[in-house]
Design a protein that fits this description.
single chain; two-stranded antiparallel sheet; 2 helices
């Protein structure tokens, strides 16, 4: 089953998320998207596991999820929300970071944590979206940021396979 409905709306599982985003393991940091209000907000979820590749070097004696990957997880939730809201699954929409602002890291995220990251659209003009995201473990705020992204068709960049348009 790829979609389920709860009292808070649609819940997207990993298989549905893979239809919305081009990311794949080990760079897919979104496992479930819930509490979806199309074009407005959603909540991403990720179970942090000890066997994720970044923990081998960050840090071997005390594994901590890199803050930049927490921001990436929030951005993936926002990207999935936008593509889902546009009913554009499978249309090769790409989400490109434009800016990351006001990033703050408050508490380490470690293996065994269940990361929950609500994202909320702050502004939308044409293909450009601005979001705020917060990452929690339980009720503890771990990270927060504002970020902007542009939604484009991969073919607009002349290379459907490249995420940065430079290859």
């Amino acid at each position: 089953m790829t979609d389920a409905t709860d009292t808070n709306g649609t819940v997207l599982d990993i298989e549905r998320i893979k239809q919305l985003l081009p990311h794949r393991a080990p760079f897919l940091f979104l496992e479930r998207l819930s509490d979806i209000v199309p074009g407005v907000s959603a909540v991403g979820h990720k179970a942090v596991s000890f066997n994720e590749p970044h923990f081998a070097g960050h840090f071997p004696d005390y594994s901590v999820m890199p803050g930049v990957l927490i921001v990436e997880a929030m951005a993936q939730a926002a990207g999935a929300l936008v593509v889902h809201s546009l009913n554009a699954a499978g249309t090769k929409k790409q989400v490109y970071f434009m800016a990351i602002d006001k990033a703050r890291f408050r508490r380490p995220v470690v293996p065994g944590d269940m990361l929950r990251f609500p994202v909320k659209a702050l502004q939308h003009r044409g293909a450009v979206w601005r979001f705020e995201g917060k990452a929690y473990v339980g009720d503890a705020l771990c990270a927060e940021a504002e970020f902007s992204a542009m939604i484009r068709n991969a073919e607009q960049d002349g290379n459907a396979r490249s995420s940065d348009g430079n290859r």
